[in-house]
Amino acid sequence: MTPGANTKKVADDITTNDRGDDEDIHDQNSKKPVMVYIHGGSYMEGTGNMIDGSILSSYGNVIVITINYRLGILAKGNLEDFERELSFNEWDLPLLK
């Protein structure tokens, strides 16, 4: 089995159970790059939770930020003053509510 890219190679001594230095490869005090994931979907579908940020961050030792935002008709702003006449095809929409 091939070790992963982030694994530290140490020699195992099975007689003394000495596994070498247990130095953490992720330095907590160093600056890290930041990845910001903004999902697509043409304002109709999608979520920031589609991508598991923990998996991305474990591969590259980076900080991953995902965001959620409003989709569909609510994505464009305040609709309080939105008034218009319903077309012939939309006359039954209020009945569905």
From TrEMBL:
Pfam families per the UniProt record, alphabetical: COesterase
Domain Carboxylesterase type B: 26-74
Name of protein: Neuroligin-4, X-linked
Region feature Disordered, mapped onto this chain: 1-31
Biased composition (Basic and acidic residues): 9-19
The family this protein is said to belong to: Belongs to the type-B carboxylesterase/lipase family.
